[in-house]
């Protein structure tokens, strides 16, 4: 039997990005003894990288804005596949969450009359993103960390121990959610520095682990985004929702190769930047889809006037939702009108004075100067699509953030599905993680406090199994049944590279049936080989071992993406099928749910051909009539299925 440290908490939050920290603050404020555990350094979560801002209909820059307009934009952006109740709560509560951040010390940029400034972003009808230059995520995390420290100081005054009610375990990775029957009982984790295993026992666990981008070769995502939370939920018996929807941000760096994929914030376009092809043409005017025709400028002159007079002009098509812009760039490059390094040109240098560019986009200025030796105040940037965000995620109850089917499990932030439908609008993630992070913390704390019959016990057998699974890369025991003995171990880095290439080439921005079938075959092969992933050395800070463990998660999640993408025979939002190019209204009624084939969570038994994932269809909830009444009938006809219109 493994001897591991065990600690008791009421709520464990896995992840210390915006969603995790907001959840932890709420749970602690509701009286729950709360532990936060994160695999990076505290304060280094992916949220720090967020640049453009937090979407919230505060109406500071245009008083026409309100939650109903924000709700409408979010549903349009998601092509009506959003879990509408989440979109409603999000639009209603985002302003409160931003004002609350300000009371906790966040220093937002201001309007001339001293209010929180808000900027334009794709798909948002009004200037709506509260921001701090192009370093908003950093300020958000700094503020939430500061709030945590202040709560710990309060606890110290009362108990003499800073960490008595709120403790952070940094550089520790969770590999399993533990269960007592169907209920959550805690998490199993290892300390990345020492390799030591430990267990945090808790009746409620909030998963806030972010996204999956590291399964793709070209991505804006940081090293942490290996789909851990998605996989933890699957292994605990919770379904994932609509995993086919992966957002390819239209503007990542394309040159030099070492920085390919790094994000070029949408604020560049929000503040006036334009996209041009190699012929110098502003090509986005050729790519306005019918559903958006009435809302976007039809000429460059009108688009340019909009920046000064948004009430009497329509916005330029550079500010279409991300999926539209990414596809347009892809088409231009494919048609031979791309830039020298396979992207298109994004230009602010001819649109704004140099000192304005340096003030409004300081990170972009430095990023291009230092990484590509390009001065964006004098010359255009070269940009192209990059894997950026996953809309699919853990299926949750809209109001409570409870994961479906697993009592005690909650999810918030990028790891949760539903909120953004088939495509997320820029700025809607930071607001999402504040709104639903708070809700997850609240409901997890209430659940823990209301438990009848005591805390669920943690089973030693489960701990032993989790420890054995984590140690497998050090031994030959992982030899899959029926395989010949003595084959050399697989290198986890090679497996990772092959996985990334497969997902990029075969399940990327434009998808085809044959290629996705090839991807599933390759994933089956990689899954078998990954069971032989071997590492040398010991458990003290061993990145090869960490990657070998992360591979399980990336392979699970990638299979979900590929299976769901193959199943959905239409194009919608972040899912584009070359063989099914139209958005089909009938598919608006369909959610795709992925579950583990082997419900015991044992992965070894799964059939290498059939795979690890069962896919089922489920009908979406009909949108509430008062919310539908916010749209014109003619617009609804473009989105809703025939029977919904009659209803
Ligand atoms: P994260 O902030 O990524 O936090 C995840 C946490 O989980 C981390 O602490 C990580 O260490 C931890 N973790 C992961 N796996 C484990 C594990 N197994 N065990 C323990 N801990 C684990 N969105 C906007 O709304 N506006 C923007 O302007 C914007 N700009 C962006 C710019 C860039 C470059 C990028 C890449 C994204 C941007 N986004 C933006 C998206 C947004 O930043 C993310 O969607 C959001 O920050 C996700 O927050 P989160 O709290 O869900 O996860």
TrEMBL record:
<feature type="domain" description="FAD-dependent oxidoreductase 2 FAD-binding">
    <location>
        <begin position="10"/>
        <end position="430"/>
    </location>
</feature>
<dbReference type="InterPro" id="IPR030664">
    <property type="entry name" value="SdhA/FrdA/AprA"/>
</dbReference>
<dbReference type="InterPro" id="IPR027477">
    <property type="entry name" value="Succ_DH/fumarate_Rdtase_cat_sf"/>
</dbReference>
<feature type="region of interest" description="Disordered">
    <location>
        <begin position="300"/>
        <end position="319"/>
    </location>
</feature>
<keyword id="KW-0560">Oxidoreductase</keyword>
<dbReference type="InterPro" id="IPR003953">
    <property type="entry name" value="FAD-dep_OxRdtase_2_FAD-bd"/>
</dbReference>
<dbReference type="Pfam" id="PF00890">
    <property type="entry name" value="FAD_binding_2"/>
</dbReference>
<dbReference type="GO" id="GO:0033765">
    <property type="term" value="F:steroid dehydrogenase activity, acting on the CH-CH group of donors"/>
</dbReference>
<keyword id="KW-0274">FAD</keyword>
<feature type="domain" description="Fumarate reductase/succinate dehydrogenase flavoprotein-like C-terminal">
    <location>
        <begin position="496"/>
        <end position="592"/>
    </location>
</feature>
<feature type="active site" description="Proton acceptor">
    <location>
        <position position="322"/>
    </location>
</feature>
<dbReference type="GO" id="GO:0008177">
    <property type="term" value="F:succinate dehydrogenase (quinone) activity"/>
</dbReference>
<feature type="region of interest" description="Disordered">
    <location>
        <begin position="474"/>
        <end position="493"/>
    </location>
</feature>
<keyword id="KW-0285">Flavoprotein</keyword>
<dbReference type="InterPro" id="IPR036188">
    <property type="entry name" value="FAD/NAD-bd_sf"/>
</dbReference>
<protein>
    <submittedName>
        <fullName>Succinate dehydrogenase</fullName>
        <ecNumber>1.3.5.1</ecNumber>
    </submittedName>
</protein>
<dbReference type="InterPro" id="IPR015939">
    <property type="entry name" value="Fum_Rdtase/Succ_DH_flav-like_C"/>
</dbReference>
<dbReference type="InterPro" id="IPR037099">
    <property type="entry name" value="Fum_R/Succ_DH_flav-like_C_sf"/>
</dbReference>
<dbReference type="Pfam" id="PF02910">
    <property type="entry name" value="Succ_DH_flav_C"/>
</dbReference>
């Amino acid at each position: 039997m493994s001897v591991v440290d065990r600690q008791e908490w009421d709520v464990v939050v896995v992840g210390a990005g915006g969603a995790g920290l907001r959840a932890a603050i709420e749970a602690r404020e509701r009286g729950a003894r709360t532990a936060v555990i994160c695999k990076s350094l505290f304060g280094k979560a992916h949220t720090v990288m967020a640049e453009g801002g937090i979407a919230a209909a505060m109406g500071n820059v245009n008083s026409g804005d309100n939650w109903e307009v924000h709700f409408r934009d979010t549903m349009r952006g998601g092509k009506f596949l959003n879990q509408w109740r989440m979109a409603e709560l999000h639009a209603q509560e985002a302003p409160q969450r931003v004002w609350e951040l300000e009371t906790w010390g966040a220093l937002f940029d201001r309007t001339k009359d001293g209010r929180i400034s808000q900027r334009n972003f794709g798909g948002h009808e009004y200037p709506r993103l509260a921001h701090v230059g192009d370093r908003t995520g950093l300020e958000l995390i700094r503020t939430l960390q500061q709030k945590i420290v202040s709560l710990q100081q309060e606890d110290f005054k009362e108990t003499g121990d800073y960490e008595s009610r709120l403790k952070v375990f940094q550089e520790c990775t969770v590999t399993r959610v533990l269960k007592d029957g169907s209920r959550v009982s805690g998490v199993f984790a290892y300390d990345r520095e020492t390799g030591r295993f430990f267990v945090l026992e808790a009746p409620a666990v909030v998963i806030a682990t972010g996204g999956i981008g590291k399964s793709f070769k070209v991505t804006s995502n940081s090293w942490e985004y290996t789909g851990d939370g998605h996989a933890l939920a699957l292994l605990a018996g919770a379904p994932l929702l609509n995993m086919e929807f992966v957002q390819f941000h239209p503007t990542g760096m394309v040159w030099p190769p070492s920085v390919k994929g790094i994000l070029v914030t949408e604020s560049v376009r929000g503040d006036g930047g334009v996209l041009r092809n190699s012929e110098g043409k502003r090509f986005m005017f050729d790519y306005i889809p019918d559903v958006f025709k009435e809302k976007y400028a039809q000429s460059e002159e009108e688009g340019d006037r909009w920046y000064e007079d948004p009430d009497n002009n329509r916005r330029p098509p550079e500010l279409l939702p991300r999926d539209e812009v990414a596809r347009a760039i892809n088409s231009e490059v494919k048609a031979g009108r791309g830039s020298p390094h396979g992207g298109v040109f994004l230009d602010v240098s001819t649109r704004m004075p140099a000192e304005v560019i340096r003030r409004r986009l300081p990170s972009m200025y430095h990023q291009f100067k230092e990484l590509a030796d390009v001065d964006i105040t004098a010359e255009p940037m070269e940009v192209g699509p990059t894997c950026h965000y996953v809309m699919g995620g853990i299926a949750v109850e809209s109001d409570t953030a409870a994961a479906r089917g697993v009592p005690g499990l909650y999810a918030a932030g990028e790891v949760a599905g539903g909120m953004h439908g088939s495509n997320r609008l820029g700025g809607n993630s930071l607001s999402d993680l504040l709104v639903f992070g708070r809700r997850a913390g609240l409901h997890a704390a209430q659940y823990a406090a209301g438990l009848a019959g005591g805390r669920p016990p943690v089973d030693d057998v489960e701990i032993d199994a989790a420890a054995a699974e984590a140690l497998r890369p050090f031994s030959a025991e992982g030899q899959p049944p029926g395989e010949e003995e003595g084959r050399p171990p697989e290198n986890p880095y090679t497996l990772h590279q092959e996985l990334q290439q497969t997902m990029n080439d075969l399940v990327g921005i434009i998808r085809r049936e044959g290629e996705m079938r090839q991807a599933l075959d390759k994933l089956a092969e990689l899954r078998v080989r990954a069971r032989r992933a071997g590492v040398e050395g010991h458990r003290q800070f061993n990145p090869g071992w960490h990657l070998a463990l992360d591979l399980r998660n990336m392979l699970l999640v990638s299979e979900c993406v590929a299976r769901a993408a193959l199943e959905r025979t239409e194009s919608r939002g972040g899912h584009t099928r070359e063989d099914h190019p139209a958005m089909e209204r009938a598919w608006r009624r369909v959610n795709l749910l992925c579950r583990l084939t082997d419900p015991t969570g044992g992965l070894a038994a799964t059939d290498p051909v059939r795979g690890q994932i069962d896919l089922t269809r489920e009908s979406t909830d009909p949108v509430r009539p008062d919310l539908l009444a916010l749209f014109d009938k003619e617009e609804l006809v473009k989105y809703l299925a025939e029977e919904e219109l009659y209803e």
